[in-house]
Amino acid sequence: MAVVNVMVNGRAYTIACDDGEEDHLRELASHVDGRVKVLLSSVGQVGDSRLLLMAALLTTDDMLDAQNKLAALQKETGVANDADDRAAQSELIAAEALEKAASRIESLTAKLGHA
After folding, report:
1. Residue 19: burial class (beta carbons within 10 Å; 0-12, 13-18, 19+)
2. pTM over the 0.85 mark
């Protein structure tokens, strides 16, 4: 277990994390601090709790938008994959039909050759 000191809105916070996660935690805190600074410029100092809540809500909104976009892309890709699967199945059916037709032609040719 590691302990990291981070700064958000000019205040120091000590947070525990798993060993090796210190840099990631600092990066996350930096992102939150950036959000808080943007909020400060638009709404002013409304208290740490409110600023942190607003930053969390904005970050969560971004995350949900990204998840929705990812789901839409996965759905699009899934539809494309379904179309590819149907095309491959059609090719297999056509190949089987051609093989059967070729076998029938060979059989008829053999019968005609013996006649």
Report:
1. exposed
2. no
